[in-house]
Design brief:
The structure is a single chain. This protein has 8 helices and 4 strands. The strands form 2 sheets. The protein has a two-stranded antiparallel ribbon. A two-stranded antiparallel sheet has the order 3-4. A hairpin with a 2-residue loop joins β1 and β2. It is globular.
């Protein structure tokens, strides 16, 4: 990197090229959705999700994180995981609901933008192993895998299910919520792992390869539900602890009497 007047010139090519490829996937998804090719649109979003996971990981492993890369990645994410799935879900399932449909799609996009903005300002203050709110790629993945599952079960063209309308609103609110989601950032692929983990990983890939449409949907759904379920479990544990204290106090009082 050449400096001129104390300012860095140039950028790191590899992570930013991957980000550009992710952005291309999002743009292609929009074009495919407008053409009525919903299956290709959904596949393009999932490819962008994979590329988005790669650019951040590569940047961290090669120590090429820059402010430019972070900002560029956020802009690409807004297109690929905000606008693209918003247009896909609207053209595929929400258009028949009129105002409620396009408002749901817009709310998904704007909550995704807010989620990204909040992430950027909290990146150095929030614990790195968790996300504050549902990550926008996960929300986009659930929409994309839902379209793929619908196609796999024999559905064609535009659909109309009120469940999809409700899920779109729920995904939007989960993105701007304070519910914690596991980030997987503490997994170091350079560390040695037990041999059994490799076997489990291979078996998992085989299962996904056998029924990719079903398995990718279930994986996306499981991750989206993991945050609320963990939150409910923690609240239940707190209630049990609070409920146990008065009981112990009453028992102690009876003994004193």
């Amino acid at each position: 990197m050449v400096r001129e007047g104390g300012v860095k010139r140039g950028i790191y090519l590899v992570p930013n090229l991957i980000t550009s490829a992710s952005l291309f996937g999002g743009f292609y998804s929009i074009v495919a959705a407008l053409d009525g090719n919903y299956y290709a649109s959904a596949v393009a979003i999932l490819i962008s999700v994979l590329l988005d996971a790669m650019d951040g990981r590569i940047a961290r492993l090669t120590n090429t994180n820059t402010r430019f890369g972070i900002e560029y990645d956020s802009l690409a994410d807004l297109v690929s995981f905000g606008v693209a799935p918003g247009i896909l879900i609207f053209t595929w399932a929400l258009r028949p609901y009129g105002r409620f449909g396009w408002l749901a799609a817009f709310l998904f996009v704007v909550c995704g933008a807010l989620r990204l903005a909040r992430f950027n300002i909290q990146i150095n203050t929030v614990e790195s192993r968790v996300f504050n709110g549902l990550p926008i790629p996960a929300a986009a993945s659930l929409i994309a895998t839902t379209v793929l599952l619908f196609s796999y079960t024999g559905g064609t063209g535009v659909t109309k299910h009120v469940t999809i309308l409700i899920v779109t609103y729920l995904l939007a609110f989960l993105m701007v919520s304070n519910i914690k989601y596991y980030s997987f950032k503490d997994l170091d692929i350079r560390e040695r792992r037990p041999f059994g983990l490799l076997v489990i990983g291979v078996l998992f890939l085989i299962v996904v390869a056998l029924e990719p449409h079903i398995m990718l949907f279930l994986i996306s759904l499981a991750y989206v539900l993991s945050g609320p379920l963990i939150l409910l479990r923690k609240k239940g544990e707190r209630r049990e602890k609070k409920g146990g204290k008065p009981k112990d106090h009453e028992e102690g009082t009876d003994k004193d009497i």
